[in-house]
Every structure is written in structure tokens, then in C-alpha cells.
Please model this.
Amino acid sequence: MAEKSEAQQPLSVSDAVALAKGAVSAWPSLVVNGEVSGFRGPNARSGHCYFEVKDDGASMSVIVWRGTAAKMGFQLRDGLAVQLTGKFDVYKASGKLSFVASRVEAAGEGLLRQQVAELARRLEAEGLMDAARKRHVPVFCSRVCVVTSLSGSVIEDVKRTLARRNPLVQIDVVGCSVQGADAPATIMRALGTAAASRPDAILLVRGGGSFEDLMCFNDEALARAIAACPVPVVTGIGHEPDTTIADMVADRRASTPTAAAESVAPAIDEVERQMLQRQLRLGRAMSAALEVRLQRVGALAQMMAGNATADLARRRVALDALGARRCLQDPLAPIEARRADLLQTEERLHDAIPRSLERRREASDAAAARLSAAGARLLSPAESTLARLAASLDALSPLSVLSRGYAIARDGAGHVVKDASELGYSDEVRVLLGTGSFDATVTATHTTED
Model:
């Protein structure tokens, strides 16, 4: 009895939940496939996601933490088939068993949507979906080219819509496949053919279908071809909820093919109404512009008349001043005045020349007297020195000695004979006297004793 009582000892709720949590934590990680139901999230405060995942026989609570949700690459929604990787856990506060997903992947259609979402993000990062890149679609297209399947009812719907709204719009059609693996290539060829004809816009349209039916419009090569098309592209693919990559990169997206046709062809009655309104506005604007210009022309005319009057008055005053000049009234007056000036100048010149010459003569005589006195003063010391030096030179001159009866004898070579022994019999000598000289022939020499 004691053992039974001890085995049935009651536990607190916290202990019971902790016991269950410990047991569940030992379970291995699981991979579970199911369909999302009752999706709630991301939570505005925490960013976590909460939902049920179910199949035909059961359902379980799932928690996706914020960090895991940020890595999914697609949006969870009810009815989406997913593959969850994670473990069961017990929430201690409520004792609720939940599956905590550490990885969430789309399955089936969900996988395709995930791939499309990833492609959309990549093309958006490249700027292909930027509104600034997209071409302007004319408000009124006079010629459009429809790219679609020729076997469906879409082309007829588009033609009826354009004919109803505006029969002036010219329609060209280029056929292509709009479903299947080969569809993107045929659509790109059709776009090239349509662009070569240079319409105002290209309508790329298709009727409704499943997500898989519309997958050809989620092709990357087709998206780049639409973005590179030289003609604006307007898409109308599927129904209102359907949005493809082609819609995202197109220059304009319409919800249906009919809406796409309506967007490029305003109703003819609306065009007529706008033309009438613009005609009225143009008439009023033209009248206002003409009135403004008429007033401006009047003001300019008054200004020009005033300027012309003032200019004529200035010219009249200038002409009167010119007419009052003596040269115009008496053309010979300047010549007579110039002749009188020349005569006066001639008289002054005749009077000035003798006076100028007399002043120059007097100045010259005074300068000559001053120069003579200055020359005498300058030469007096030199004359005294010259006389003294001349007396000294005369006293030392051989000619002075010769004048006293001496003579100088030179041999045939011109050398002065200082010794009689230097001469021989019949030598020629020249004897220099005080006045003159003579030549002689030696007949005999004598010593001092002789």
C-alpha cells in the first residue's frame, strides 16, 4: 500500500509540464509536409509567425521564429503546401505542444512561387522594375500590335474592345504560344516581329489560367526581352489577382486583356469631348494671348512714337547748331582768318629775327672774351714751365756745345767717333758743326800726345 501511495503522489502543473517538455526535447528533428492553415504573422512586435499545418487526418501548431521567417524567401499564406524541418517543443506557460520550424520550404506550387519570388527580387535589384526605366505609353495609340495566341478568344475580345472604344485604332496581330515550356521563346520572337513594325504600343495578353499555366510569363529571358523592347509593352495576363514577372517589368500592367486594350485606346466619345474642351480652351487662350499682344503692340507703338519724336527733336537741334556755324554760312571765312593769322605771324617773325641775332652776337662776344681770359689764365703756368724746360734743354743740347766751336764726327755706319784709333786711312766720316756738316776722308790719325 505504501508503494502504491508513493507512486500516485500528485505533481504540480509546473512539474508535469517540465516533465513533458523534457521528454519532448529528447525527440529527434523531423521533416514534415503539410498545408498552411490559420496563418498569423509576422507578429508586429516580435516578427514571429504562428499557424497550423494540416493534412487529411490531423493538424499541429507551428511556430516560425523571426530569424527563420526572414530566410524563407517567400510569403506564407493559407493553403500553401510547405515542408517544415524542426522539433516539437512544449510551451511551459500553457503546456501547449508546438512544432518549432528551423527551416521552411515551399512544396509543389509553393516551390514555383518561391522561385518566382526569388527571380522578382533579383530583377528588381537590377532595376528592371524601376518606374524611371519604363517607357511612356502614349495616351492615344493610333496603331497597336497584339501578341497572343491566335487560337483563343482573347484576340477577338481585344479586337471587339478596340473597335467599340475607338475604331480609329489600327490593329496588327502577331501569334505566339502562351503556355508550355516552349512559350517564352515564341513570345520573344513575336515581340521582335511586333517591334520591327514600330507600332505605338505592343499588347502582350493572355486569358486566365492556373499558376502553372502562367509560368511561361515568369521566364527570366522573356522578362529581359520585354525590358529591352524598343516599343512600350502593355501586359494583360490572366485575371485580376494574377501577377507575373512579365507584368512587373512591362511598361504598363493591366488586370485583364480587355483592360489592356482599353488602356491604350480612349473611348471615341471621350476623345471627341476632350477635343471640344481643348478647342474651347485653345480659343480662349488664343484670344487672351492676342489681347495681351495687342496691348503690348499698342504700348510699343506709343513708345516708338515718343522715341521717334524725341530723336527728331534732337536731330533738329543738332542741324540748327551745324547751320549756325560760320564755316557753313561763309565758306571763305576760315581761309581769311587763317591768312590774317599768317600775316601776323610773318610780322612777328620779321621783328623777332634781328633782335634774336643781336642777342646771339652779344652773347657770343661775351663768351669769346670770357674764353680768351680763361685761356690766358690756363696757359700762363704752362708757358712758364715750358720756358724753364726749354732753357734746361738748351743748356744740355749738343747743338749748344757745337755752337761754341765744337764738332761731332760719325763714321760710315753713323756711329759717333769718340777715339781717333777707331778710324783708319781713307775712312769716310761726316763732321757735324754748330751750323751744317761736311764729309771728309781720313788721311792720317793722331794721338793726344801728337
Q: What stands out?
A: The two ends are 206 Å apart (CA to CA). The chain has a mean pLDDT of 84.
